[in-house]
Amino acid sequence: MRRATLLAGIVLVPLGWALAGLGMTGHMAGHMIAVALAAPLLAAGLAGTRLDAAARFPRRVTPMAMMPLEAAVVWGWHLPLLRDLADASLLAMLAEQAMFLASGYLLWNAVIHAPQRAAGVGALLLTSMHMTLLGVLIGLAPRALYCGSPAFGLDALADQQLGAVIMLLVGAASYLVGGLALLALILKSPAENPA
Prior knowledge:
Layout lengths: L1 H18 L3 H24 L6 H4 L6 H15 L2 H9 L1 H24 L3 H23 L16 H33 L7
Helix pairs in contact: 1-2, 2-6, 2-8, 4-6, 4-7, 5-6, 6-7, 7-8
């Protein structure tokens, strides 16, 4: 099962990177594939291996330490200047997507290994909140925020709005499922249920 999970995560990475160059809609699809789909699959697939960051550095790779790191990466790359740079340069786009994947992996890896599962639930909840806020801000902007070329025959504002919807739907579903799975483990475990 672990091997299949790892393989699924690996297969998703180039798909996300290929989509990332297709306007804001493609960017958001690539972004969500990296942080919300490939990253948790890679974290689960690499658990217990030498690439398991939380197992190697348990005091540094914690949910509440990785959540702000992931937030800084996501919000930083959505600043118009950096977003436009990623649209204009293949190297910048690859750096952006690699940082999305790495920060997403570290967050999910920390959540999987959290000794206090409630910290993992909290980190996923906070991540869901900041992703939702960013998606809403991008989607409700009265004008196009980015200079990149729109895709799929959309104008720049419609492309931006569709990208925001993808961020809201995929991000919300991924972090909700992850948080609920962790919450179910907490409720099943009497050791984490103080009386």
